[in-house]
Design goal:
Blueprint: E1 5-8, H1 13-24, H2 41-51, E2 55-58, H3 62-66, H4 73-93, E3 96-102, H5 125-140, E4 144-149, E5 151-153, H6 160-169, E6 174-177, E7 181-182, E8 184-186, H7 187-202, E9 209-213, E10 219-220, H8 221-232, E11 243-246, E12 260-261, H9 266-272, H10 279-293
Helix pairs in contact: 1-7, 2-4, 4-5, 6-8, 8-10
Amino acid sequence: MRMRLMLLGGGNALGQALIRLGAEEDIGFLAPRPPKDGWDVPSLTQLLDDTRPDALVNLAYYFDWFQAEAPDAGRLADQERAVERLAELCQHHQILLLQPSSYRVFDGSRATAYSEKEEQVPLGLRGQALWRMEQSVRAVCPRHVLLRFGWLLDESPGGLIDRFLRRAEQGEELMLADDRRGNPTPVDDAARVLIAVLKQLDCEAPLWGTYHYGGHEATTTLALGQTILGEARAYRLALTDNIVPQPHAARPDAADEPQHAVLACKKILHTFGIKPRAWRAALPALLDRYYRHV
């Protein structure tokens, strides 16, 4: 890798997966430790003025965007300002910007898979914030890759899988939507995609724009939950089997979470040659990491 790579958010689950995979391929990242209160406009300005990498992967706010149960409006507003400033700095210093985004920029009314050309009509606070961040990156920093991921799965304490398994261990009734669909995407697979994109950008291929990636085989939240529990029983036998199907419209997060969140991944395949991988195959390694640290 000829480019000097910077990673913001090297301590979170996706950042750690990216560092692990990069090390296997002899790809290193500058991964500065964030300030006590997290990256903000002044600290980002100072960082990039001092370091000036060739490319930057922005996972600084990964947990809030992809794993937090309830987003905080104030934090999201601060992060919007920080991302806009980051885009300005990348443009000023001619740094390539890899910015993650999410299926949440869509409203979920489309029963077929969303392509990159579909209109974005985000539902909740998080989706609306991510949509505005996408817009500011496009407007300010032409040399960018916006990568929208499907349902990201990781071992984060307090993350989606952690919350689900803790409820299962307590014997709670688990109500899951049987008509809500998406692409489960383990973080190891998401890291693989980021590395593949960086490799081609390192070859000075001007492949800027917006791309979708999600794990192979769209599924429902009900089927995903059943699969996770099946794998988790290798570590914890006393997990509830009281899973109750529930319509999306009856779920407490129905106003914020798209019912149909399947992403079409043809563009990233045709542009970068990145093929979707089966999400089920990555679950055992993910749960092994989770139970080693729980």
